[in-house]
Amino acid sequence: MIKKGKIKIPGIALFVIVLYILFCFIAQSFFSWYNFVLILRNSCTLLIVSLGMTWSILIAQTDLSVGSVMSMGAVMSAVMSNAGIPTVVIVICVLAMGVGVGSLNGILISKFKFDFWVTTFSTMSIFAGLALVIANGATVGFENKFYDFIGNATLPGGIYWLIIITALISGICIYVERNTEFGFNMFSVGGCESAAIDSGINVAKNQFLVYLFSGILSSISGILVAGMSNAGAPTVGVDYTFTAMAAVVIGGTPFIGGKGGIVGTIFGTLLLRILTSGLSMMGIAPTWQKAITGVIIVSLIVVDVVNENRVVKNGLRRIYTDAE
């Protein structure tokens, strides 16, 4: 029987709220319903990619191919749509591509014990190149009612369907992470792989599933980003890989694995998008935006590491005191 995990609100949540309130005072036009919805919309594709990244980091590994799979999904959507292929077939093909890349990564890493950095870097390079070749190195525009709907259609109040779709996917992933054997096993494998093996957990199976889901989620993000822009850009996912890593880590899932999870990643993603929106409205140049964002990310990680070390030291001190 799997013990249901409690959903804890990470410390980064408070910082996100404070940052949002701060920008409301210092950035002109930041405090508006339109901008709030826009921040949520701009967070969607990054969050979906980051969901898969969260699970790969949770098991003390990572998936560098997420951005390339996303780009490939967007390009496939545009090129196949322009070729007159039915939308259902396009979506199935894009998802199948995600399944294929995720399965390839998973098999090489879990079964053949390839290094995860080398493996996912290789698939990243392969599919980044394929996306450029298929698109002839240029952004491919297209018209597709389904894609336009999921990317740009709104509900009353201006809420995009894209936000609803992302919320549903995130909710499903949170449930899987906190209430299933697979979710429990991810924390166990990331916490101590040897102990997980000794306890009877099929580590290879769980590693494979993590990369499989990462590939699927990245391909879904490719579909959504194509719908948002009505175009398939072969380089659209270039920045997503490391931005997703940042969202995951500042959300409380460390590279050593074993703790954290998707709830923290949601707040990490919101933090990055709030920063982008706020700094843009303050008139900060894009180059400086990246520098400022980088400084804030490093600062948050340092604070988290310091707090973690303090907790560990206090725990060891109590154990030593009790032993005396």
From TrEMBL:
Domain of life where this protein originates: Bacteria
A GO molecular function held by the record: transmembrane transporter activity
Bilayer disposition of the protein: Multi-pass membrane protein
Keywords attached to this entry: Cell inner membrane, Cell membrane, Membrane, Transmembrane, Transmembrane helix, Transport
Chief localization: membrane
GO cellular component, as recorded: plasma membrane
Segments crossing the lipid bilayer: 12-33, 39-59, 66-83, 89-109, 116-138, 158-176, 208-228
Subcellular location: Cell membrane
Name of protein: Autoinducer 2 import system permease protein LsrD
